[in-house]
Amino acid sequence: MLVAAAVCPCPPLLVPEVAAGATPELDPARDACVDALGVLAAARPDRLVVVGPAGQDGEYPAGSRGSFQGFGVDLDVSLGRGAVDAADARAVLPASLAVAAWLLDRTDRADTPVTGLGVGEPLAAERCIQSGRDIAGSAERVALLVMGDASACRTLKAPGYLDDRAADFDASVARALAGADVAALKALDVRLAHELKASGRAPWQVLAGAAEDADLDGSLLYDDAPYGVGYLVATWS
Q1: CATH of 2-236, one of 3.30.360.10, 3.40.366.10, 3.40.830.10, 3.40.50.150
Q2: CA 32 to CA 9: how far, in whole Å?
Q3: Of 22, 28, 43, 227, which residue is the least packed, with the fewest Cβ within 10 Å?
Q4: Domain map of the chain by residue range?
Q5: pLDDT tens-digit profile of 103-147?
């Protein structure tokens, strides 16, 4: 059963070494993420599952490695503790889960087992929801760390340029996360999310499936769009 969830954005710029001179601009988002992960730790889960957007669907066991070398930084991370076969391609974390691993390294998780799930952007809503249900049923006390960005079209200089629909879309997601509104997340428009380059859509719908019977309360900790990309931090507990 799902006992807690944290929702965080996943830009590699959250990692100060990657952000370099832009580090202070994202300090509020980093602080909010740390606070959100504290809620997960306080829930004392039996299992923590990290869910994030990826190029293709894939499961990542504890100990899977990630790297920020592709962003010009000699920094490696590991998803929890564990040993994996270096030849196992699934053990190479996508960027969203590498950011999650970096965040988790900065929090006290005791010895909670951690695994990762990458979800491809085209994954249909119902499959995301069913995946969430399966995760929730995998242990008595399950926590989710849900990585993903809102729209990338909030300003003219945004990665997706300016789209007048982006602000309203992001506001609707923010309301859903603040209110732990499972139905609203399930109903997100998949096509619109794709057009607005909202990488969090599929992970958020995994959360919706996991939280169906959990009766959790939501809290929105951060809502802003630096660089024209919507970043949201929330907790459900």
Answers
A1: 3.40.830.10
A2: 10
A3: 22
A4: 2-236
A5: 999 886 667 899 999 999 889 999 999 999 999 999 999 999 999
